[in-house]
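Working notes for the structural subgroup meeting. M.R. asked for a predicted model of this chain before we commit to crystallization trials. I am recording the input and output together here so anyone reviewing the notebook later can reproduce the run.

Input as submitted:
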Amino acid sequence: MTWLVTGGAGYIGAHVLRALRDAGLEPVSFDDYSSGHEGFVPDDVPAIRGSILDGQALERAITQHGVTGVIHVAGFKYAGVSVQRPLHTYEQNVTGTATLLAVMADRGVDRIVFSSSAAVFGTPDVDLVTEDTPKNPQSPYGESKLIGEWLLRDQGVAAGLRHTSLRYFNVVGSGDPAVYDTSPHNLFPLVFDALVERRTPKIFGDDYATPDGTNVRDYIHVADLAVSHAAAARRLDAGEALEPAYNLGSGDGVSVAEIMAAMARVTGIEFTPEIGPRRAGDPARIVATGELAARDLDWAMRHTLDDMVRSAWDARRGASQR
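Returned structure, recorded in C-alpha coordinate form:
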Protein backbone atom coordinates (compact mmCIF):
# COMPACT_ATOMS: atom_id res chain seq x y z
CA MET A 1 0.00 0.00 0.00
CA THR A 2 1.30 3.46 -0.93
CA TRP A 3 0.74 6.40 1.38
CA LEU A 4 1.21 10.03 0.36
CA VAL A 5 2.55 12.13 3.23
CA THR A 6 1.77 15.80 2.72
CA GLY A 7 4.38 17.88 4.49
CA GLY A 8 6.74 14.90 4.25
CA ALA A 9 9.85 17.09 4.26
CA GLY A 10 8.96 18.69 7.59
CA TYR A 11 10.10 17.73 11.08
CA ILE A 12 7.06 15.55 11.84
CA GLY A 13 6.34 14.43 8.28
CA ALA A 14 9.88 13.15 7.77
CA HIS A 15 9.56 10.97 10.87
CA VAL A 16 6.23 9.67 9.55
CA LEU A 17 7.92 8.68 6.28
CA ARG A 18 10.42 6.59 8.23
CA ALA A 19 7.73 4.98 10.40
CA LEU A 20 5.69 4.00 7.35
CA ARG A 21 8.74 2.48 5.69
CA ASP A 22 9.60 0.58 8.89
CA ALA A 23 6.03 -0.75 9.00
CA GLY A 24 6.32 -2.21 5.50
CA LEU A 25 4.28 0.49 3.78
CA GLU A 26 5.41 2.56 0.79
CA PRO A 27 5.61 6.29 1.58
CA VAL A 28 5.71 9.17 -0.88
CA SER A 29 6.59 12.70 0.25
CA PHE A 30 4.64 15.71 -1.03
CA ASP A 31 5.90 19.09 0.18
CA ASP A 32 6.24 22.66 -1.08
CA TYR A 33 9.38 23.19 1.07
CA SER A 34 8.04 26.39 2.59
CA SER A 35 9.24 25.09 5.96
CA GLY A 36 10.43 21.57 5.11
CA HIS A 37 13.87 20.48 4.00
CA GLU A 38 14.86 18.26 1.09
CA GLY A 39 17.53 16.64 3.24
CA PHE A 40 14.91 15.37 5.68
CA VAL A 41 13.41 12.98 3.11
CA PRO A 42 15.18 9.59 2.95
CA ASP A 43 16.96 8.89 -0.32
CA ASP A 44 14.80 5.83 -1.02
CA VAL A 45 11.49 7.70 -0.64
CA PRO A 46 10.02 9.49 -3.70
CA ALA A 47 9.86 13.23 -3.08
CA ILE A 48 7.44 15.47 -4.96
CA ARG A 49 7.53 19.25 -4.78
CA GLY A 50 4.03 20.68 -4.72
CA SER A 51 1.44 22.64 -2.77
CA ILE A 52 -1.73 21.17 -1.29
CA LEU A 53 -3.49 24.17 -2.83
CA ASP A 54 -2.55 22.82 -6.28
CA GLY A 55 -5.12 20.17 -7.13
CA GLN A 56 -3.39 19.23 -10.38
CA ALA A 57 -0.08 18.57 -8.61
CA LEU A 58 -1.87 16.42 -6.04
CA GLU A 59 -3.67 14.50 -8.76
CA ARG A 60 -0.40 13.81 -10.61
CA ALA A 61 1.28 12.60 -7.45
CA ILE A 62 -1.60 10.29 -6.52
CA THR A 63 -1.92 8.89 -10.04
CA GLN A 64 1.78 8.42 -10.80
CA HIS A 65 2.52 6.63 -7.55
CA GLY A 66 -0.67 4.60 -7.18
CA VAL A 67 -1.48 6.24 -3.86
CA THR A 68 -4.06 4.38 -1.77
CA GLY A 69 -4.03 6.55 1.37
CA VAL A 70 -2.93 9.96 2.63
CA ILE A 71 -1.36 11.11 5.87
CA HIS A 72 -2.04 14.84 5.89
CA VAL A 73 0.64 16.64 7.89
CA ALA A 74 1.11 19.74 5.71
CA GLY A 75 -0.19 23.04 7.01
CA PHE A 76 0.59 26.36 8.65
CA LYS A 77 1.37 25.39 12.24
CA TYR A 78 2.19 28.59 14.12
CA ALA A 79 -0.70 29.33 16.48
CA GLY A 80 0.62 32.68 17.66
CA VAL A 81 1.38 33.93 14.15
CA SER A 82 -2.04 32.76 12.96
CA VAL A 83 -3.62 35.58 14.98
CA GLN A 84 -1.79 38.09 12.75
CA ARG A 85 -2.26 36.01 9.57
CA PRO A 86 -5.73 34.47 9.82
CA LEU A 87 -6.48 34.47 6.08
CA HIS A 88 -3.20 32.78 5.28
CA THR A 89 -3.84 30.21 8.00
CA TYR A 90 -7.32 29.38 6.71
CA GLU A 91 -6.09 29.19 3.12
CA GLN A 92 -3.35 26.71 3.98
CA ASN A 93 -5.20 24.62 6.54
CA VAL A 94 -8.83 24.74 5.41
CA THR A 95 -8.72 25.41 1.67
CA GLY A 96 -5.68 23.14 1.36
CA THR A 97 -7.43 20.29 3.17
CA ALA A 98 -10.61 20.74 1.12
CA THR A 99 -8.56 20.69 -2.09
CA LEU A 100 -6.81 17.50 -1.01
CA LEU A 101 -10.08 15.78 -0.09
CA ALA A 102 -11.64 16.73 -3.44
CA VAL A 103 -8.72 15.23 -5.36
CA MET A 104 -8.82 12.10 -3.20
CA ALA A 105 -12.52 11.66 -3.96
CA ASP A 106 -11.92 12.14 -7.69
CA ARG A 107 -9.13 9.54 -7.69
CA GLY A 108 -10.92 7.02 -5.47
CA VAL A 109 -8.54 7.36 -2.50
CA ASP A 110 -10.74 6.61 0.49
CA ARG A 111 -8.51 6.71 3.60
CA ILE A 112 -6.74 9.53 5.42
CA VAL A 113 -4.93 10.19 8.70
CA PHE A 114 -5.14 13.88 9.61
CA SER A 115 -2.62 15.86 11.63
CA SER A 116 -4.80 17.75 14.09
CA SER A 117 -3.76 19.58 17.24
CA ALA A 118 -4.38 20.08 20.94
CA ALA A 119 -5.16 23.66 19.91
CA VAL A 120 -8.72 22.53 19.15
CA PHE A 121 -9.31 22.47 22.94
CA GLY A 122 -8.11 26.00 23.65
CA THR A 123 -7.52 26.28 27.41
CA PRO A 124 -9.69 23.52 28.89
CA ASP A 125 -10.64 23.79 32.56
CA VAL A 126 -10.00 20.11 33.36
CA ASP A 127 -7.05 18.26 34.87
CA LEU A 128 -6.97 15.63 32.13
CA VAL A 129 -8.12 16.25 28.57
CA THR A 130 -9.99 13.42 26.84
CA GLU A 131 -11.23 13.15 23.26
CA ASP A 132 -14.66 14.34 24.45
CA THR A 133 -13.42 17.45 26.26
CA PRO A 134 -15.31 20.48 24.83
CA LYS A 135 -13.57 22.15 21.89
CA ASN A 136 -12.89 25.85 22.28
CA PRO A 137 -10.04 26.87 19.98
CA GLN A 138 -8.60 30.31 20.74
CA SER A 139 -6.59 31.01 17.60
CA PRO A 140 -7.21 30.81 13.85
CA TYR A 141 -4.78 27.89 13.85
CA GLY A 142 -6.82 25.92 16.37
CA GLU A 143 -10.02 26.79 14.56
CA SER A 144 -8.57 25.66 11.23
CA LYS A 145 -7.62 22.29 12.70
CA LEU A 146 -11.09 21.77 14.13
CA ILE A 147 -12.60 22.64 10.75
CA GLY A 148 -10.25 20.08 9.21
CA GLU A 149 -11.71 17.42 11.51
CA TRP A 150 -15.20 18.50 10.46
CA LEU A 151 -14.28 18.25 6.77
CA LEU A 152 -13.16 14.66 7.26
CA ARG A 153 -16.33 13.85 9.21
CA ASP A 154 -18.59 15.33 6.57
CA GLN A 155 -16.72 13.69 3.70
CA GLY A 156 -17.05 10.39 5.54
CA VAL A 157 -20.82 10.82 5.53
CA ALA A 158 -20.97 12.06 1.94
CA ALA A 159 -18.45 9.79 0.24
CA GLY A 160 -17.53 7.00 2.65
CA LEU A 161 -14.11 8.44 3.48
CA ARG A 162 -12.39 6.37 6.16
CA HIS A 163 -10.49 8.66 8.46
CA THR A 164 -9.03 9.49 11.82
CA SER A 165 -7.49 12.63 13.30
CA LEU A 166 -4.47 12.55 15.60
CA ARG A 167 -4.29 15.50 17.98
CA TYR A 168 -0.72 16.50 18.75
CA PHE A 169 0.37 18.18 21.93
CA ASN A 170 4.04 19.28 22.28
CA VAL A 171 6.18 17.24 19.90
CA VAL A 172 9.91 17.12 20.67
CA GLY A 173 13.03 15.02 20.24
CA SER A 174 14.44 13.31 17.17
CA GLY A 175 14.24 9.75 15.89
CA ASP A 176 16.93 10.26 13.26
CA PRO A 177 20.05 12.44 13.58
CA ALA A 178 19.30 13.88 10.14
CA VAL A 179 15.92 15.31 11.21
CA TYR A 180 15.39 18.00 13.85
CA ASP A 181 12.91 20.69 14.84
CA THR A 182 13.62 23.93 12.95
CA SER A 183 10.57 25.87 14.16
CA PRO A 184 11.35 29.43 15.29
CA HIS A 185 8.55 29.22 17.87
CA ASN A 186 8.93 25.88 19.69
CA LEU A 187 10.45 25.58 23.17
CA PHE A 188 13.24 23.10 22.49
CA PRO A 189 14.86 24.92 19.55
CA LEU A 190 14.42 28.26 21.34
CA VAL A 191 16.27 26.96 24.42
CA PHE A 192 18.98 25.35 22.29
CA ASP A 193 19.45 28.62 20.37
CA ALA A 194 19.87 30.50 23.64
CA LEU A 195 22.40 28.00 25.00
CA VAL A 196 24.44 27.96 21.80
CA GLU A 197 24.46 31.77 21.70
CA ARG A 198 25.36 31.95 25.42
CA ARG A 199 22.06 33.58 26.32
CA THR A 200 19.97 32.61 29.35
CA PRO A 201 16.72 30.79 28.52
CA LYS A 202 13.57 32.35 29.89
CA ILE A 203 10.58 30.95 31.75
CA PHE A 204 7.36 32.94 31.44
CA GLY A 205 5.82 32.86 34.90
CA ASP A 206 6.66 30.80 37.96
CA ASP A 207 3.59 31.51 40.06
CA TYR A 208 1.07 29.12 38.52
CA ALA A 209 -0.95 26.65 40.60
CA THR A 210 1.38 23.76 39.75
CA PRO A 211 3.87 21.85 41.93
CA ASP A 212 6.83 24.05 40.95
CA GLY A 213 4.91 27.13 39.80
CA THR A 214 5.65 26.74 36.07
CA ASN A 215 3.34 25.62 33.26
CA VAL A 216 2.74 21.89 32.86
CA ARG A 217 2.34 20.49 29.35
CA ASP A 218 2.33 17.21 27.47
CA TYR A 219 5.67 16.61 25.75
CA ILE A 220 5.83 13.59 23.47
CA HIS A 221 8.66 12.16 21.39
CA VAL A 222 8.29 12.61 17.64
CA ALA A 223 9.28 9.00 16.93
CA ASP A 224 6.49 7.72 19.21
CA LEU A 225 4.08 10.01 17.37
CA ALA A 226 5.22 8.65 14.01
CA VAL A 227 4.67 5.03 15.09
CA SER A 228 1.01 5.79 15.78
CA HIS A 229 0.59 7.31 12.31
CA ALA A 230 1.86 4.11 10.76
CA ALA A 231 -0.42 2.07 13.01
CA ALA A 232 -3.41 4.16 11.92
CA ALA A 233 -2.49 3.68 8.26
CA ARG A 234 -2.20 -0.08 8.67
CA ARG A 235 -5.58 -0.31 10.39
CA LEU A 236 -7.25 1.77 7.69
CA ASP A 237 -5.64 -0.46 5.04
CA ALA A 238 -7.06 -3.48 6.85
CA GLY A 239 -10.55 -1.96 6.88
CA GLU A 240 -10.60 -1.81 10.67
CA ALA A 241 -12.66 0.75 12.56
CA LEU A 242 -10.97 3.72 14.22
CA GLU A 243 -12.22 6.53 16.42
CA PRO A 244 -12.79 9.87 14.66
CA ALA A 245 -9.97 11.41 16.73
CA TYR A 246 -7.28 10.43 19.20
CA ASN A 247 -5.31 12.47 21.70
CA LEU A 248 -1.62 11.55 21.71
CA GLY A 249 -0.97 12.57 25.30
CA SER A 250 1.29 11.48 28.13
CA GLY A 251 -1.27 11.36 30.90
CA ASP A 252 0.90 13.24 33.39
CA GLY A 253 2.82 16.08 31.73
CA VAL A 254 6.11 17.86 32.40
CA SER A 255 6.69 21.35 33.77
CA VAL A 256 8.78 23.99 32.05
CA ALA A 257 11.11 24.05 35.06
CA GLU A 258 11.62 20.28 34.71
CA ILE A 259 12.47 20.74 31.05
CA MET A 260 15.01 23.43 31.86
CA ALA A 261 16.63 21.14 34.44
CA ALA A 262 16.80 18.34 31.88
CA MET A 263 18.31 20.72 29.32
CA ALA A 264 21.13 21.63 31.73
CA ARG A 265 21.63 18.00 32.78
CA VAL A 266 21.80 16.59 29.25
CA THR A 267 23.75 19.37 27.53
CA GLY A 268 26.19 19.87 30.40
CA ILE A 269 25.59 23.62 30.18
CA GLU A 270 24.69 24.90 33.64
CA PHE A 271 22.24 27.78 33.76
CA THR A 272 19.53 29.28 35.90
CA PRO A 273 16.55 30.29 33.77
CA GLU A 274 15.49 33.91 33.77
CA ILE A 275 11.96 34.35 35.12
CA GLY A 276 9.75 36.64 33.08
CA PRO A 277 6.11 37.67 33.47
CA ARG A 278 3.30 35.36 32.48
CA ARG A 279 2.19 35.40 28.87
CA ALA A 280 -1.44 36.30 28.33
CA GLY A 281 -3.65 33.27 27.80
CA ASP A 282 -1.15 30.66 29.03
CA PRO A 283 -3.05 28.10 31.13
CA ALA A 284 -1.36 26.49 34.12
CA ARG A 285 -1.77 22.94 32.87
CA ILE A 286 -2.80 21.10 29.70
CA VAL A 287 -2.33 17.33 29.89
CA ALA A 288 -4.21 14.66 27.96
CA THR A 289 -4.85 10.98 28.38
CA GLY A 290 -3.60 8.75 25.58
CA GLU A 291 -5.64 5.70 26.61
CA LEU A 292 -7.66 5.37 23.40
CA ALA A 293 -4.56 5.75 21.23
CA ALA A 294 -2.75 3.15 23.37
CA ARG A 295 -5.65 0.77 22.79
CA ASP A 296 -5.87 1.25 19.03
CA LEU A 297 -2.70 2.86 17.64
CA ASP A 298 0.28 1.33 19.44
CA TRP A 299 0.66 4.61 21.31
CA ALA A 300 3.16 4.61 24.17
CA MET A 301 5.57 6.99 25.84
CA ARG A 302 8.71 5.04 24.95
CA HIS A 303 11.12 7.88 25.73
CA THR A 304 11.97 9.64 28.99
CA LEU A 305 12.34 13.40 29.22
CA ASP A 306 16.13 13.02 29.12
CA ASP A 307 15.77 10.86 25.99
CA MET A 308 13.72 13.59 24.36
CA VAL A 309 16.23 16.31 25.20
CA ARG A 310 19.27 14.21 24.31
CA SER A 311 17.96 13.11 20.92
CA ALA A 312 16.94 16.68 20.03
CA TRP A 313 20.27 18.12 21.22
CA ASP A 314 22.33 15.52 19.35
CA ALA A 315 20.40 16.15 16.12
CA ARG A 316 20.76 19.91 16.53
CA ARG A 317 24.51 19.68 17.13
CA GLY A 318 24.89 17.29 14.21
CA ALA A 319 23.09 19.73 11.93
CA SER A 320 25.40 22.58 12.92
CA GLN A 321 28.41 20.43 12.04
CA ARG A 322 27.21 19.41 8.60
